[in-house]
Amino acid sequence: MEESPSMDDHQDSSLVVGVGLCDSAPLLWRLQDLKTVRSLGLVGALLGSLPRTPRQNQRLGRPLLLLPEEEKLLRDEEAAGALPGQNQDVGGVELQRRFEEDQQRSFEEQSVLALEDRKSALLRAMTSSHTGSESGAEAVDEALRRRLEALDHSFTFPQSAMAVQLSTARAGLSYCPEARAHLQANWPIREQNSPRSDARCQVFRDLRGRGFFLTSAGKFGGDFLVYPGDPLRFHAHFIAVCLMLDESVCLLDVLAVARLGSNVKKTVLLCSPTADGGVHYTSLQWSGMV
Amino acid sequence: MCDQTPNWILQHPAYQQMKDLEVGDSEQLHAAFLVYMDLTEVRRWKEVSCVKSPELQVVLLKAKEKEGASVQTIFPLPVHRSLSHRSIRQVLDRGFPVLLCAVAADSTLVYQRMTDGLVTPDPPAGPFQDVGRRQHRKRRQQH
């Protein structure tokens, strides 16, 4: 496996992450897998909603979406395996039955507690309104007893009033941890291999090999954002634009991306793979000549 | 003024020199001349000369920002043109710092620095101070 400065020393070469395919999107679901790819210097993008903080996009949770280049890197280093498809029939029925049992039990418990609640409320109401009058004490007791009896017979606890607990703490993701299929040669190839995507892949590998962390740069009109270290600790230094050496680009586009780069304090990097497997990098910067 | 010397550009010795390089691209020739005038008359750069790039068939300029500075290559190009990364590499291969100059139809000039390799950008200017929670809360309420 290719060594890079950012890899952990105790990297287990048999460490394999399970990639689940949702249509064509490569997703990682398991916490350990997310840690593993981060230790390999791959960042990905979190997609999921966090149960305790919904309706916001600042902090997202699992699954992690991999870039095509990241998935290819894992594939080439034999660090990715296909997560087996969910065995929906067997698992699902069992889970549903258990859920319904739990719900029923909870309902019965709550009914009992609700009745007790009502009774003690009734008790409080009737005794407090007659405190201090001794003569009517017996009559009150009798009325109370009758009321409590009536309550016993007529009280119903409606299903709609039931409190349902939703577990938000680390809900387990149902999968079979033992069965992992190591990557076979027939891993479905989904992306069309255009020259541009080949260029992106080679550039990705080269920069990753130099210890940089890369994420997608859609917001900046480039291919990748290049960080000198983990994105949690650093700002990006470069906006990488990948193109073939002989690809023709409009000068206006070069100016536009260079201007954007200087506005956000990043250097624009033109990246082209060479025939011998290397990559040519050209840095674009504002000249300062107004 | 116009009717007196309508062809002052064509008769300018620097223009003649560039024309003699015979790149066969009159548009790029014109662009190169405008950059030449900007460097010599406006920015007062030193030892401005022209040279032909055989690979690209364009006029390149060589100049020093001031006396004693190192030579730079300036690549003038009309703004609507296209170029390839390879052609940029060929200019860089000359071994001098490169400035790409885009020339617009209204003669506006934009200079971009091009360097081989990964040049770390300048860090943001300090001094920095923590904004504090109150500032963040204010900003959030504005949404």
UniProtKB/TrEMBL annotation, chain A:
Active-site positions on this chain: Y227, H235, K266
InterPro entries with a match to the protein in the record: tRNA_endonuc-like_dom_sf (IPR011856), tRNA_intron_Endo_cat-like_sf (IPR036167), tRNA_intron_Endonuc_cat-like (IPR006677), tRNA_splic (IPR006676), TSEN34 (IPR016690), TSEN34_N (IPR059049)
Known EC number: 4.6.1.16
GO biological process: mRNA processing; tRNA-type intron splice site recognition and cleavage
Cell compartment(s), UniProt: Nucleus, Nucleolus
Residue stretches making up the TSEN34 N-terminal domain: 19-80
UniProt entry tagged with the keyword Ubl conjugation: no
SUPFAM superfamilies named among the record's database cross-references: tRNA-intron endonuclease catalytic domain-like
Keywords: Lyase, mRNA processing, Nucleus, tRNA processing
Residues covered by the tRNA intron endonuclease catalytic domain: 199-281
Ribonucleoprotein listed as a keyword: no
Molecular functions per Gene Ontology: nucleic acid binding; tRNA-intron lyase activity
Family note: Belongs to the tRNA-intron endonuclease family.
Subunit structure: tRNA splicing endonuclease is a heterotetramer composed of TSEN2, TSEN15, TSEN34/LENG5 and TSEN54. tRNA splicing endonuclease complex also contains proteins of the pre-mRNA 3'-end processing machinery such as CLP1, CPSF1, CPSF4 and CSTF2.
Alphabetical list of PANTHER family matching this protein: TRNA-SPLICING ENDONUCLEASE SUBUNIT SEN34, TRNA-SPLICING ENDONUCLEASE SUBUNIT SEN34-RELATED
Role summary: Constitutes one of the two catalytic subunit of the tRNA-splicing endonuclease complex, a complex responsible for identification and cleavage of the splice sites in pre-tRNA. It cleaves pre-tRNA at the 5'- and 3'-splice sites to release the intron. The products are an intron and two tRNA half-molecules bearing 2',3'-cyclic phosphate and 5'-OH termini. There are no conserved sequences at the splice sites, but the intron is invariably located at the same site in the gene, placing the splice sites an invariant distance from the constant structural features of the tRNA body.
Protein name: tRNA-splicing endonuclease subunit Sen34
Species, as recorded: Acanthochromis polyacanthus (spiny chromis)
Organism taxonomic ancestry: Eukaryota, Metazoa, Chordata, Craniata, Vertebrata
TrEMBL record, chain B:
Domain tRNA-splicing endonuclease subunit Sen15 residue range list: 34-123
The name this protein goes by in its record: TSEN15 tRNA splicing endonuclease subunit
GO biological processes: tRNA splicing, via endonucleolytic cleavage and ligation
UniProt family annotation: Belongs to the SEN15 family.
Keyword tRNA processing applies: yes
Annotated keywords: tRNA processing
Biased composition (Basic residues): 134-143
Region Disordered, annotated ranges: 120-143
Cellular component per GO, a single term: nucleus
Taxonomic classification: Eukaryota, Metazoa, Chordata, Craniata, Vertebrata
Keyword Ribosomal protein: no
Superkingdom of source: Eukaryota
Recorded GO MF terms: nucleic acid binding
Family annotation (Pfam families): Sen15
